[in-house]
Design brief:
The complex is a heterodimer of chains A (351) and B (510).
Chain A (H helix, E strand, L loop, with lengths): L1 E6 L5 H25 L4 H10 L5 H26 L7 H18 L6 H29 L3 H21 L24 E2 L2 E2 L1 H18 L1 H11 L1 H6 L4 H28 L10 H11 L4 H25 L5 H21 E6 L3
Antiparallel strand pairs in A: 1-4, 2-3
Helix pairs in contact in A: 1-2, 1-13, 2-12, 3-7, 3-8, 3-10, 3-11, 3-12, 4-5, 4-6, 4-10, 4-11, 5-6, 5-10, 7-8, 7-12, 11-12, 11-13, 12-13
Chain B lengths: L8 E10 L2 E11 L4 E5 L6 H8 L7 E6 L2 E3 L4 H7 L1 E4 L11 H8 L6 H14 L15 H13 L5 E5 L7 H16 L3 E5 L3 H7 L2 E6 L2 E6 L6 H9 L17 E8 L14 E6 L3 E5 L6 H9 L10 E3 L2 E2 L5 H6 L2 E4 L14 H9 L14 H14 L16 H13 L5 E5 L7 H16 L3 E5 L3 H7 L2 E6 L2 E2 L3 E2 L5 H8 L10
Parallel strand pairs in B: 3-8, 3-9, 6-7, 7-8, 13-18, 13-19, 16-17, 17-18
Antiparallel strand pairs in B: 1-2, 1-4, 4-5, 9-10, 11-12, 11-14, 14-15, 19-20, 19-21
Classes of the chains: A mainly alpha (351), B alpha/beta (510).
Chain lengths: 351, 510
C-alpha cells in the first residue's frame, strides 16, 4: 500500500475547520506517548496538563491572563501572514512595547491620573510599531528578507531591554536588583482577580481586525497581495504599502500586548524578560486559521500549554520545557494537516 | 506512406480519470511511421492529457499503448525518449542563462564532448533547415529560435515519433513555413509526427490524418485535406461556431488612447525595453498589435495599464488627459479598462470566488462597491452575476473559485467584468489565448460591439487569424518597437511576417 496525495478540485471548507481539530488530537496523542515514555500514566498526564487548568477559578483566571498577549499578537500576525508578510519578531516588538510603556512611570513616578494609563498604552503600542517599522523599511528599501531581520531584532530588543533596566531605568531604591520602580495606581491596568483590562483589548482587537480583514477593502487588498501579488498590482494595490501597514499593525498589537503585560501582571520592568509570548503567538495565528477570531480560541488553547506545563512540573515532575515541545509539535501538526484542505489522501495498492 | 504497414504507436481504449473528470474517455488512435497526424480539439478536450501519457509524464487509468506491435507501459519521459519519442512543449523548458548547446547537453543521456556536440548541433540544424548557433545564450534568442533548440534537442535522439504542442503559436508565418518544410522532410524519412494545433488552416496544409477529441472522447477521424476549416471546427465544437461580424461602416471618433514616445526601462535582464512607441487609437475602432511572443507585448500592456509607470506623464493620454504617472486605479477612473494575458494570478486571484474577483478591478470605479473602505458584498455578487449572465459563464457552483473555471469561461468572466463597466478605452492582451472556439467567437464579437459603441479597443494578439478577423488597423511589435498602425486591408501575410521579424526596427547605431 502507498499513500498518495491527490489534489482536490476545490478547497475543502470542511477540512479547513477540521484541520486544527485533527492537529490538536494528534498533539494529544503525541503527548500521551511522551508521558508514557516518561513512566507517567498517559491519561493522568493529559488530565493534569490539559484539563486541570480549566477546573478551578484561580487557574481559569491565569489562563485568561496568559491568553491575553497571545490573542493580541496572534490576531495582528494573522493579518500580516495573510498578506504573505512574515513578521517573526513579535517577541521583540512585545519587549519594546513593555519598555516604552514602562518608561512613562520611570520618568514620571508620581504621575497619577487616568491619562497616565492611556499614555502608557499608547507608548507601548508606538514602541512595538516603531520596532516593527525597522524590518519593514529594510524590506521595502533593500529587499532584505523580513523573516531574518524581524527575528534577529528580537535578540537586539532583549539586549536593549536588559541594558536599560540594569542601567538608567533601574529603581534607585531597588537594592540594586535589575528592576524598575513599581507601577502604582493609574500606572496599572484595572483588574478583576488576576484578569486585567488587557483581556478586553484582546477581544475587541481580534473582532476589529477580523472586520478589517473580511469586510473592508484594506483586508481585501492584503488577502489579494498575499495570494497573487501580480493580481494585487493589477488591482492597483501597492505591495510596499502593505508591508508598512502589516508591520505597523502587528507591531502595534505586540507593543500593546507588552504594555498590558507589564501594566497588568508584573507591575514593573524586570530583566531578563523573555516570556516567549511573541513566538507562541505565531502558533496561535496558524492554529486560528490566520483568522483574528480564530486567534481567540487558539490563544486560549496555547495558554493551557503554559499553565499545564507549570502544573506538570509541580505534580508530575516533568520539566516545564515540555510546554515548548507541545507548542512546537502543535504547530507542526497544524501545518501538516493544512495539506488536507487542498489535497486528499488516497490509499493505493502498490504495483 | 504505406497504409498497409502496422502502426508505430497505437493507443488502445485509453481512459484517464482525474478525480471525477474523465479527461480521456476510451481514446483509441494509431499513428503510422512517416505520417503527420493532427490531434485536434478545443481546450480541455483532453489533447494534452493524451500526449502526456504518450510521453510517459502521466499514466493511464486503464487501457494500453502498443509500440511497434508490442504492448508496453511508458513509465517515464526518460523511457519515452529511449523508445524514440520526442516532445516539443508549448512552454519551453530551457535555461535562459545557458547556451543552446549547454541546454541540449543537459537533456542528453551519457557522456560526450561539448565541442563534438556543438558541431553535431550545427550540422543537424543546418541539414534540417533550422540553422542554430550552439554557442548563443538562450536569453538572446527569439522565441522562434528557442523552439529550434527544443526541436534540435529532440532530433539529436533520432526520434521515431515527434510530438509538437501548438508549435506555430510562437512563430511568424515565414518561420512556420520553414517549420513545415522541416516536418515534411522528417516525415519523408519515416519519422511519425503528432501535431497538436487549433489552427485548422495549417492542419489542412500539413497533416495526413487528424483525430478530433471532444470532452475526452474521439469524435472523428478524418483526412484534413478533404475537409474545410469550418467542417473541422464543427467536429471540434460539436455545433456551428458563431460568425464574428466585423465593423461595417468606418465611423472613426476622436483619439481616445494615445501613446507618445512611450519608453520604459527594462525591469530585469530578461524583460523587453519599450522604445519610443507611438500609437493613436480612435473611438469606434479596433486596433490590433501583432507580434511574436516575448517581443514586449506584456511590457506594453503593463505600461498602458499603469502597472509600470511611464517616465513622461504625457507619454500616455487617455481621452486627452495625461495619465503616464497615474496608477492602475486612476487610469480606470479615466474610463480605461484592461484585460491581461495571464488569467490566473494576474487577471484573477485563483483562490478567490468570482464575486471577490469582481472587486479586484472594480473597487475604484464602482462607488458603492467599497464606500468608506467597507466592501458591499451584495454589490460584488450582483456584478459577478451580471457578468456571468451576459457572457454565459459556465460554472459548477453559484459563486465558484476562479481556478475551478475552464480557461474559456474564466476569460469570458475577466473580459466581461471590464465590458460590464462600459469603458471608453479597452486594452486586451491575448483575448482568446487558450480559449475554446465558442468562447473565442463570443469574446471577439464583444470587442467589436464595444468599439461600435464608440470606445477605443486595443488588442494585443499573437493570433493572426484573430487579428485579421477583428482589426480595423494593425501595428506590429518586435523587440520593443512598434510599427506604424495601418489599415488591416493593406497587409498581406508576407508583409506582416516581415514586420514581425523586425523589418521596421530602427537601429540604434543609425
Amino acid at each position: 500500500m502507498r499513500l498518495d496525495l491527490e489534489k482536490r478540485s476545490d478547497r475543502s471548507s470542511l477540512m479547513a475547520l477540521l484541520s486544527p481539530i485533527i492537529a490538536v488530537a494528534l498533539t494529544l496523542l503525541f503527548g500521551a506517548i511522551v508521558f508514557w515514555l516518561r513512566g507517567v500514566d498517559p491519561l493522568h498526564g493529559l488530565y493534569v496538563y490539559f484539563i486541570q487548568p480549566m477546573t478551578d477559578e484561580w487557574s481559569r483566571e491565569k489562563l485568561i491572563v496568559k491568553a491575553t498577549p497571545l490573542v493580541l499578537m496572534g490576531a495582528g500576525l494573522a493579518l500580516s501572514y495573510k498578506a504573505n508578510i512574515w513578521n517573526i519578531g513579535a517577541e521583540g516588538q512585545f519587549v519594546m512595547g513593555a519598555l516604552a510603556a514602562g518608561a512613562v512611570p520611570v520618568l514620571f513616578p508620581t504621575w497619577q491620573s487616568p491619562e497616565v494609563m492611556v499614555v502608557m498604552l499608547l507608548a507601548g503600542s508606538l514602541g512595538g510599531l516603531l520596532w516593527a517599522w525597522i524590518p519593514a523599511v529594510l524590506k521595502v528599501k533593500f529587499h532584505a528578507n523580513e523573516i531574518l531581520t524581524s527575528l534577529m531584532l528580537v535578540y537586539v530588543a532583549r539586549l536593549v531591554f536588559d541594558w536599560l533596566v540594569r542601567g538608567i531605568m533601574r529603581d534607585p531604591k531597588g537594592m540594586n536588583f535589575p528592576k524598575s520602580v513599581r507601577f502604582e495606581g493609574w500606572q496599572r491596568l484595572p483588574s478583576w482577580g488576576d484578569v486585567h483590562l488587557g483581556a478586553l483589548f484582546a477581544l475587541v482587537a481580534a473582532l476589529a481586525l477580523a472586520f478589517v480583514m473580511y469586510r473592508m477593502l484594506k483586508g481585501f487588498e492584503l488577502r489579494t497581495l498575499g495570494l497573487a501579488p501580480r493580481a494585487g498590482r493589477f488591482a492597483g494595490f501597492s505591495a510596499d504599502k502593505a508591508v508598512y501597514f502589516c508591520f505597523a499593525v502587528s507591531g502595534a498589537m505586540a507593543g500593546l500586548a507588552g504594555a498590558t503585560d507589564v501594566m497588568g501582571v508584573a507591575h514593573q520592568l524586570q530583566t531578563p524578560y523573555e516570556p516567549n509570548y511573541g513566538f507562541v503567538a505565531i502558533i496561535v495565528a496558524f492554529l486560528g486559521r490566520l483568522n483574528p477570531i480564530g486567534s481567540i480560541i487558539a490563544g486560549l488553547l496555547l495558554a493551557i500549554t503554559f499553565i499545564g506545563g507549570e502544573a506538570a512540573q509541580a505534580t508530575l515532575h516533568i520539566p516545564d520545557k515540555i510546554a515548548k515541545v507541545f507548542q512546537g509539535v502543535l504547530l507542526f501538526f497544524v501545518l501538516a494537516c493544512d495539506t488536507l484542505i487542498l489535497y486528499r489522501i488516497k490509499l493505493r495498492a502498490k504495483k | 506512406m504505406n497504409s498497409g504497414a502496422s502502426p508505430l504507436l497505437q493507443a488502445d481504449h485509453i481512459v484517464k480519470i482525474f478525480g471525477t473528470l474523465r479527461a480521456n474517455d476510451d481514446v483509441s488512435l494509431s499513428i503510422k511511421a512517416g505520417e503527420i497526424h493532427a490531434l485536434l480539439g478545443e481546450n480541455g478536450a483532453g489533447k494534452s492529457t493524451l500526449v502526456k501519457m504518450i510521453y510517459g509524464a502521466l499514466q493511464p487509468t486503464s487501457g494500453k499503448f502498443i509500440w511497434q506491435g508490442k504492448p508496453l507501459e511508458i513509465a517515464s519521459p526518460a523511457q519515452a525518449r529511449s523508445l524514440g519519442i520526442g516532445m516539443v512543449f508549448q512552454h519551453f523548458s530551457l535555461f535562459e542563462a545557458l547556451t543552446a548547446a549547454e541546454n541540449i547537453a543537459l537533456a542528453l543521456p551519457g557522456k560526450f564532448q561539448m565541442n563534438e556536440l556543438s558541431s553535431r548541433v550545427t550540422k543537424l540544424s543546418a541539414d534540417y533547415g533550422l540553422p542554430l548557433d550552439p554557442s548563443a545564450s538562450i536569453a538572446d534568442l527569439s522565441v522562434g529560435q528557442r523552439q529550434r533548440v527544443e526541436i534540435v534537442r529532440c532530433l539529436l535522439q533520432n526520434p521515431k515519433l515527434l510530438i509538437l504542442d501548438e508549435p506555430t503559436s510562437v512563430l511568424t508565418p515565414q518561420e512556420a513555413e520553414q517549420l513545415f518544410i522541416t516536418l515534411r522532410r522528417l516525415a519523408s524519412e519515416g519519422c511519425a509526427i503528432l501535431y497538436i494545433s487549433h489552427r485548422l488552416e495549417e492542419v489542412r496544409k500539413l497533416c495526413d490524418r487528424a483525430t478530433v477529441l471532444r470532452q475526452g472522447k474521439v469524435v472523428a477521424t478524418c483526412d484534413p485535406r478533404q475537409e474545410t476549416p469550418a467542417s473541422m471546427a464543427r467536429m471540434m465544437v460539436g455545433s456551428d461556431v458563431m460568425q464574428v461580424h466585423a465593423i461595417s461602416g468606418n465611423t472613426k471618433g476622436p483619439v481616445r488612447l494615445a501613446l507618445q514616445k512611450l519608453t520604459t526601462a527594462a525591469q530585469d535582464n530578461f524583460s523587453v525595453q519599450l522604445k519610443n512607441i507611438n500609437l493613436d487609437v480612435h473611438g469606434g475602432e479596433v486596433v490590433a498589435i501583432a507580434g511574436v511572443a516575448g517581443n514586449g507585448q506584456s511590457e506594453l500592456f503593463d505600461a498602458i495599464s499603469g502597472e509600470i509607470l511611464a517616465v513622461q506623464n504625457n507619454a500616455v493620454l487617455m481621452d486627452g488627459v495625461a495619465a503616464g504617472h497615474d496608477g492602475v486605479t486612476l487610469r480606470r477612473k479615466h474610463g480605461a479598462a484592461f484585460v491581461p494575458e495571464e488569467r490566473l494570478g494576474h487577471a484573477a486571484v485563483p483562490n478567490f470566488v468570482l464575486s471577490n474577483n469582481a472587486i479586484l478591478t472594480r473597487h475604484g470605479t464602482d462607488a458603492d462597491l467599497a464606500s468608506r473602505g467597507i466592501i458591499n458584498s451584495a454589490i460584488a455578487f450582483k456584478i459577478a452575476d451580471q457578468v456571468i449572465k451576459a457572457f454565459d459563464v459556465r460554472k459548477g457552483k453559484v459563486d465558484p473559485e476562479a481556478r475551478s473555471l475552464s480557461g474559456g469561461n474564466l476569460q469570458k468572466f475577466t473580459v466581461g467584468r471590464e465590458l460590464d463597466r462600459k469603458p471608453n478605452i479597452l486594452v486586451v492582451n491575448q483575448p482568446t489565448w487558450g480559449v475554446d472556439a465558442g468562447a473565442a467567437a463570443t469574446i471577439r464579437q464583444a470587442l467589436i460591439d464595444l468599439a461600435k459603441s464608440g470606445a477605443a479597443v486595443l488588442v494585443i494578439s499573437q493570433d493572426l487569424d484573430e487579428i485579421f478577423e477583428i482589426a480595423d488597423r494593425i501595428a506590429v511589435i518586435s523587440r520593443g518597437q512598434l510599427s506604424e498602425a495601418l489599415p488591416a486591408k493593406t497587409y498581406t501575410l508576407e508583409k506582416i511576417g516581415l514586420l514581425m521579424a523586425g523589418a521596421h526596427e530602427v537601429s540604434h547605431a543609425a
